[in-house]
Amino acid sequence: MKSWKQYWVYCVSEGVPRRSLIVSVVVGSILNLINQGDALFGGEPVSMAKIVLTYIVPYVVATYGAVSYRINLANAEARGRS
User: Fold this and answer.
1) How far apart are alpha carbons 66 and 80 in whole angstroms?
2) How far apart are CA 4 and CA 8, in angstroms?
3) Domain contains 63
4) Tens-of-pLDDT digits for all 82 residues of the chain?
5) Distance between CA atoms of residues 27 and 59, nearest Å
6) Which residues contact 28 (CB under 8 A, 6 or more apart)?
7) Is 12 within a domain?
8) Does the residue 36 lie in any domain?
């Protein structure tokens, strides 16, 4: 089991934030167009909470995937050295 400090190190190192941000911008923009297209182009009220969440969720998911991969890789390397 890794410590919280190690999880945090994985979250903020080696390109994870940059890749997660790119995923968030691309996926979040597409989802915003799908979910709020009427509001954005039709003059209806726009929900800022929905816009923010639509960008945050892909960022968190991409970061989780990268950290999970790195943890599994580190565990496999540790088993290989044992």
Assistant:
1) 21
2) 6
3) yes
4) 568 888 899 999 889 999 999 999 999 999 999 998 888 888 888 889 999 999 999 999 999 999 999 999 988 988 887 5
5) 9
6) 54, 55, 57, 58, 59
7) no
8) yes
Asked if residue 3 belongs to a domain, the reply is no
For 58, the domain range is: 18-81
* pLDDT (0 to 100) of residue 16: 95
Q: Which are the contacts of 61, defined by CB distance < 8 A and separation ≥ 6? A: 23
Q: How far apart are CA 54 and CA 41, in angstroms?
A: 17
Structural domain count, the chain: 1
51 is written with which tokens?
A: 């816009």
What is the pTM for the complete model shown?
A: 0.85
**Which are the contacts of 54, defined by CB distance < 8 A and separation ≥ 6?**
28, 31, 32, 35
DSSP 3-state of 80:
helix
Q: Count other Cβ atoms within 10 Å, centred on residue 58.
A: 21
Check residue 82 and give its pLDDT: 58
